[in-house]
């Protein structure tokens, strides 16, 4: 039976997961006996996952990764072992990795929400990686000059590209530091000499980077950027690159930046930048919109780490610290946290940030804050609504009912009653017709209850096949009248073509001191007592319905059962069965093929030979019949015989390949009677044969299919008749 107590809301989050801008996937790891991961299964993925990987849900869900990505075990990176460790230890990791089976680069966040399981959230960064490779290629062939200055000998040597930058011929540079200074534009010479003094004075470990103008041999002024450092051999090593075009662009950018700053000031987001230096961070810039969002002016935050931290909710400060730590390793991050505004209220901010520069151990980050407080409040309302709803029936769930009772003002609603309802025979319906029919029965029951109750009554699915109703202001007598009316409605319902039988229990609170758990216990006790009286009858009606359904969709008609009962009774008397066993035999004749109700009409009435798969389905009907009969006390006495009525004397029958006297005696009788009736009456696959041919077939199969002694007794009985 499909259980649903309403507290599992995983399906309800699917809409939220589907809208994530990142790929989302949950997996279950498969470990060997030594605890080593050797495979994992796709449990859930979202639409973005399909888009990024090209894998479709219907092709991968509940399948092993080794079947989906056949090359994964040959990958240089041991994906399965890596994820197996995450799922076992609960670690969280963020990394970039190339997937050889998918031939893509991904930025991955992986964590374990439950031991043995892991979740990945990732972005496709293939294009970014490709762009970076192209950039590296360009840099290798860029025109960057190299020079070396020996502090001891005062000699300066230039690469050929250095001379090109300064407009000199190869070997034309004189080779002294002073000669180099002559090539620096007069207005920058003092600055260049000063900036180089730390390392010329042999203070190691002080890298330099500076920009200045030079005068080429032809008199043209150009901008260059130089970087230099002192090595262990008392030599200053330096690089130089012509940045004249860059300086021109910077001038143009300055104008553009002024325009951009104007636009930024108009946006509804808070735009900011900060630098990470060691373990600290320093806010450099916030646009003026910060005042509109949280009430504080931008200058309160500039360079003031302590004030910024004080505004973050104490429970969320670790998020910020983790964010700062992350940005040392990755270039992009999205976080949410609560931020105190000027009025002391906490706003929920959506924080999106990106590294713009990494230079000399300093990381510069730009980002934006968006106030999503109202949006999250609406989402929480929707989620809370889903938490209190039963997905199958559409009613409130157990959690909602308990909360209602906890908040219920009993004092102003005395007396009040609780009614509990339990569907009789739902397991038989599930076993016989399938879970889809059982679900229809649950939905129809819920609909009848919902259409009957008053607006102020509270109805919920209590669990499995149980429902519960709170009836404020109701005496016990009134509650019993409600139950009487409901029973009439259920008896009249024809919507699911199955008789709906409900057992009810009721308890009434007449004093303010009444306890909900005591009321519930009393109502359940009454319901259980009623179920003992009503359940058997309800199950019998369902079985009658099953037999009618079976007769309507196959050749297992009532007439077939009557003919078999008559012949079985005669044979049973002939072999000396007791009255008790004769009654069991008659019941077996009627119910032996009840398991066929779970088989489709197309198979039952197929005129041609069954396929191998269809035959396997057909061979399951004794087990299904056994399950149905076992669920009903008065039918359970023949459950073993129903399970065994297609076993053969020689052990070649089904479903258990029993042999000889291992087969229950009544099952051996009914197999002969069934064979005779099938041969002598029309079937989809054959026309009726005369009794002589049927008897000859039973004689031929005595000792193989049939008990030889029972076969002889049957043949003699038929000859005498």
Write the layout of secondary structure elements.
Layout: H1 14-18, E1 23-31, E2 37-45, H2 47-53, H3 57-60, H4 65-68, H5 79-89, E3 93-99, E4 104-111, E5 117-124, H6 126-140, E6 145-150, E7 155-158, H7 160-165, H8 177-183, H9 189-200, E8 208-215, E9 221-230, E10 235-242, H10 244-266, E11 270-277, E12 280-286, H11 290-294, H12 305-311, H13 317-326, E13 332-340, E14 346-359, E15 362-371, H14 373-387, H15 398-407, E16 416-423, H16 426-433, H17 435-452, E17 458-463, E18 466-471, H18 476-492, E19 502-509, H19 516-553, H20 558-574, H21 579-591, H22 601-604, H23 612-618, H24 621-630, H25 639-644, H26 665-679, H27 691-700, H28 708-720
Antiparallel strand pairs: 1-2, 1-5, 3-4, 4-5, 6-7, 6-10, 8-9, 9-10, 11-12, 11-15, 13-14, 14-15, 16-18, 16-19, 17-18
Helix pairs in contact: 16-17, 16-19, 16-24, 20-21, 20-26, 21-26, 26-27
Description:
- This protein has 721 residues and is of the alpha+beta class.
- The protein has five domains: 11-131, PAS domain (Beta-Lactamase, 2-Layer Sandwich), CATH 3.30.450.20; 142-247, PAS domain (Beta-Lactamase, 2-Layer Sandwich); 267-376, PAS domain (Beta-Lactamase, 2-Layer Sandwich), CATH 3.30.450.20; 388-535, 2-Layer Sandwich (Alpha-Beta Plaits), CATH 3.30.70.270; 554-720, Hypothetical protein af1432.
- It is 44% helix and 21% strand.
- Strands 2-1-5-4-3 form a five-stranded antiparallel β-sheet. A five-stranded antiparallel β-sheet has the order 7-6-10-9-8, sandwiched between helices. Strands 12-11-15-14-13 form a five-stranded antiparallel β-sheet, with helices on both faces.
- It is elongated.
- The two termini are 49 Å apart.
- The relative contact order is 0.05.
- The model is unreliable at 1-7 (pLDDT under 50).
- Residues 414-545 form the GGDEF domain.
């Amino acid at each position: 039976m499909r259980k649903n107590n309403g507290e599992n809301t995983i399906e309800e989050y699917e809409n939220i997961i589907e809208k994530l801008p990142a790929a989302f996937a949950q997996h279950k790891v498969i470990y060997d006996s030594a605890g080593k991961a050797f495979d994992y299964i796709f449990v859930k993925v979202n639409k973005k996952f399909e888009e990024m990987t090209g894998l479709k849900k219907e092709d991968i869900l509940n399948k092993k990764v080794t079947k989906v990505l056949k090359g994964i075990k040959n990958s240089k990176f041991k994906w399965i072992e890596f994820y197996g460790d995450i799922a076992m230890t609960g670690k969280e990791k963020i990394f970039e990795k190339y997937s050889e089976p998918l031939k893509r680069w991904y930025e991955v966040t992986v964590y374990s929400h439950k031991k043995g399981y892991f979740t990945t959230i990732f972005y496709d960064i293939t294009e970014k990686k490709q762009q970076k490779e192209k950039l590296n290629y360009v840099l290798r062939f860029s025109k960057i000059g190299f020079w070396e200055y020996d502090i001891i000998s005062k000699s300066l040597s230039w690469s050929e590209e250095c001379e090109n930058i300064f407009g000199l011929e190869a070997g034309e540079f004189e080779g002294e530091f002073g000669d180099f200074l002559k090539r620096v534009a007069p207005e920058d010479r003092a600055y260049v000499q000063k900036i180089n003094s730390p390392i010329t004075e042999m203070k190691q470990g002080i890298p330099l980077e500076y920009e200045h103008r030079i005068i080429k041999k032809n008199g043209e002024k150009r901008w260059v950027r130089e970087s230099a450092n002192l090595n262990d051999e008392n030599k200053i090593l330096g690089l130089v690159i012509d940045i004249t075009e860059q300086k021109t662009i910077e001038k143009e950018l300055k104008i553009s930046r002024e325009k951009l700053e104007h636009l930024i000031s108009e946006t509804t987001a808070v735009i900011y930048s900060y630098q990470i230096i060691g373990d600290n961070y320093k806010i450099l810039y916030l646009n003026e919109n910060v005042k509109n969002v949280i009430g504080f002016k931008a200058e309160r935050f500039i360079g003031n780490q302590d004030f910024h931290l004080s505004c973050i909710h104490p429970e969320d400060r670790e998020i910020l610290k983790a964010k700062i730590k992350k940005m040392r390793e990755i270039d992009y991050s999205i976080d949410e946290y609560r931020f105190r505004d000027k009025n002391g209220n906490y706003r929920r901010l959506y924080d999106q940030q990106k590294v713009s520069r990494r230079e000399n151990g300093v990381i510069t980050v730009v980002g934006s804050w968006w106030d999503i407080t109202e949006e999250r409040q609406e989402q929480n309302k929707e989620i809370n609504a889903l938490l209190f709803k039963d997905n199958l029936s559409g009613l409130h769930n157990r959690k909602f009912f308990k909360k209602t009772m906890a908040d219920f003002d009993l004092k102003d609603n005395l007396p009040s009653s609780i009614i509990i309802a339990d569907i009789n025979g739902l397991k038989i319906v599930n076993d016989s017709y399938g879970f889809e029919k059982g679900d229809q029965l649950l939905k129809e029951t819920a609909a009848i209850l919902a259409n009957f109750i008053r607006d102020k009554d509270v109805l919920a699915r209590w669990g499995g096949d149980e429902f519960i109703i709170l009836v404020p202001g109701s005496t016990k007598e009134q509650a019993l009248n409600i139950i009487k009316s409901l029973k009439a409605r259920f008896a009249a319902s024809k919507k699911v073509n199955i008789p709906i039988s409900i057992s009810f229990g009721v308890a009434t609170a007449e004093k303010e001191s009444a306890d909900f758990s005591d009321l519930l216990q009393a109502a359940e006790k009454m319901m259980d007592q009623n179920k003992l009286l009503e359940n058997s009858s309800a199950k019998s009606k369902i079985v009658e319905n099953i037999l009618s359904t079976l007769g309507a969709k196959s050749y297992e008609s009532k007439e077939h059962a009557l003919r078999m009962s008559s012949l079985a009774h005669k044979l049973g008397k002939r072999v000396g069965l007791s009255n008790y066993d004769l009654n069991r035999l008659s019941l077996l004749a009627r119910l032996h093929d009840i398991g066929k109700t779970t088989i489709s009409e197309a198979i039952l009435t197929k005129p041609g030979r069954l396929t191998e798969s269809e035959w396997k389905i057909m061979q399951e009907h004794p087990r299904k019949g056994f399950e149905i009969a076992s669920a009903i006390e008065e039918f359970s006495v023949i459950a073993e015989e129903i399970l065994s009525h297609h076993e053969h004397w020689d052990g070649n029958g089904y479903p258990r390949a029993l042999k000889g006297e291992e087969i229950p005696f009544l099952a051996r009788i009914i197999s002969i009677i069934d064979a005779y009736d099938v041969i002598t009456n029309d079937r989809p696959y054959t026309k009726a044969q005369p009794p002589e041919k049927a008897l000859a077939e039973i004689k031929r199969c005595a000792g193989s299919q049939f008990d030889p002694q029972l076969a002889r007794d049957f043949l003699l009985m038929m000859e005498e008749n």
